[in-house]
Structures are given as C-alpha cells and as structure tokens.
UniProtKB/TrEMBL annotation:
<dbReference type="InterPro" id="IPR009057">
    <property type="entry name" value="Homeodomain-like_sf"/>
</dbReference>
<dbReference type="GO" id="GO:0003700">
    <property type="term" value="F:DNA-binding transcription factor activity"/>
</dbReference>
<keyword id="KW-0238">DNA-binding</keyword>
<dbReference type="Pfam" id="PF00440">
    <property type="entry name" value="TetR_N"/>
</dbReference>
<feature type="DNA-binding region" description="H-T-H motif">
    <location>
        <begin position="29"/>
        <end position="48"/>
    </location>
</feature>
<dbReference type="InterPro" id="IPR036271">
    <property type="entry name" value="Tet_transcr_reg_TetR-rel_C_sf"/>
</dbReference>
<dbReference type="GO" id="GO:0000976">
    <property type="term" value="F:transcription cis-regulatory region binding"/>
</dbReference>
<protein>
    <submittedName>
        <fullName>Transcriptional regulator, TetR family</fullName>
    </submittedName>
</protein>
<dbReference type="InterPro" id="IPR023772">
    <property type="entry name" value="DNA-bd_HTH_TetR-type_CS"/>
</dbReference>
<dbReference type="InterPro" id="IPR001647">
    <property type="entry name" value="HTH_TetR"/>
</dbReference>
<feature type="domain" description="HTH tetR-type">
    <location>
        <begin position="6"/>
        <end position="66"/>
    </location>
</feature>
<dbReference type="InterPro" id="IPR050109">
    <property type="entry name" value="HTH-type_TetR-like_transc_reg"/>
</dbReference>
C-alpha cells in the first residue's frame, strides 16, 4: 500500500466512523461515505470493501482504542489505595468517552438493534472487556474493600450506560437546554454524581473522593 492509499483508507475510516456514529450503520450508505470523503464509491470499495467490511473496520478501530484506554486504567488498580484506583478507573473511562464521543455513539446505536445482522461484535469485543474490568475489581472485593454482596457485572454495566448516555446525549438544564460533555459545569456535576453513585453501590469505605 502506498502512502497515498494509506491516507485514503484513513480518511474513509474516519468519515465512516463519523457517519456511523451519527446515523447508525442502517442509516448510512456507502454513497454517503464516499461523498463525505470526496471520493467515488469504486475507490471506497477498492480500499476497504463494502459497507459491512468498512463497518467492521470502524468497530475494530473503536474497540482497540477503548481496550487500550481501559488496560492502562486497570493497570493502576493494584496500587496502594484501591478506593482511589477504582474511582480513577471510572474517571479515565469517562474522560475517554468525552474525548471520543463517536465511540459510545457507535455502541449506543447497537443497543437500539443497529446492524443487527452483525452479531459477533459484542461477543468478541464487549464481553472480554467487561470480564477484564470485573477481574481487575475482584481483588478489592476479596480484600473487603468492595461489599461482598455487590453484583460487579451489573455495576460495571450501570456505569457504562450512564457514561455513554452523558457523553452522547448530555443532560437538560432548568430551561430545557441540553448540556453535554463540552459544558464544564455539567461535566463536573456528572462526574461528582458518578463518584457518589459508584462509591455507595460498591460499599467503599470512607467518603467518595
């Protein structure tokens, strides 16, 4: 692949990511992707294949970015203060979703049965990450830091649902205006709420940081 070809592939994947995140897989056509990239359909097909292949490439790229961010965050859980490390894990994931809002948007479309004929992504990408986060939290539960009766899997999912929802849709203020992650006050308030909710749900000792 020449540098020019690599540049076109990167452009196609970037544009496809934006459109799939905004419109969903079912609502996006290869023609739309080609037009947004300033290319013709034949060029898109030559470089990345059809829409299905392009979607799989987009989702793989999103997964690798998410996995890298989570692995870096989980590596800190074994530190001296597990409570601080657990909260830092949540902060890191929130920051990742705020900085990369297209990634939670892609997964939220799938929650609404987008690309329902492509069924392997949750099994290959999502379930291993959920299992890894649960495994990273398990020593804290075994040490009594996390309440033994907590359902870790559902706690993790609850955090994901909340963070994805805020990163994609924000919240409404008193006047009915949508305040998203770009609003510093809204982000600060949401972060504090997450800390309190996670702290109480996990039964962590002391006050939420």
């Amino acid at each position: 692949m020449t540098p020019a070809d690599g540049g076109q592939v990167a452009l196609i994947v970037k544009v496809a990511t934006q459109l799939f995140a905004a419109l969903g897989y079912d609502g996006t056509s290869t023609r739309q992707i080609a037009e947004a990239a300033g290319l013709n359909i034949a060029t898109v097909n030559y470089h990345v294949g059809g829409k299905r292949e392009l979607y799989l490439a987009v989702m793989e790229r999103a997964h690798l970015a998410e996995r890298t961010a989570l692995e870096q965050a989980m590596a800190r859980i074994g530190g001296a203060d597990p409570v601080v490390a657990i909260h830092r894990l949540m902060d890191d994931y929130l920051d990742f979703c705020v900085d990369n809002p297209e990634i939670p948007a892609l997964w939220m479309h799938r929650w609404l049965s987008d690309a329902s004929d492509i069924t392997e992504l949750e099994r290959e990408y999502v379930q291993p990450l959920i299992a890894n986060v649960g495994a990273a939290l398990l020593p804290a539960r075994e040490a009594g830091v996390i309440d033994a009766g907590v359902d870790l899997e559902y706690t993790i999912w609850s955090a994901i649902w909340s963070i994805h929802g805020f990163a994609k849709g924000g919240v409404l203020d008193a006047e009915g205006r949508r305040r998203g992650a770009g609003d510093r006050a809204a982000l600060r308030r949401f972060r504090a709420h997450l800390h309190q909710s996670l702290h109480r749900t996990l039964g962590l000792p002391g006050d939420a940081p």
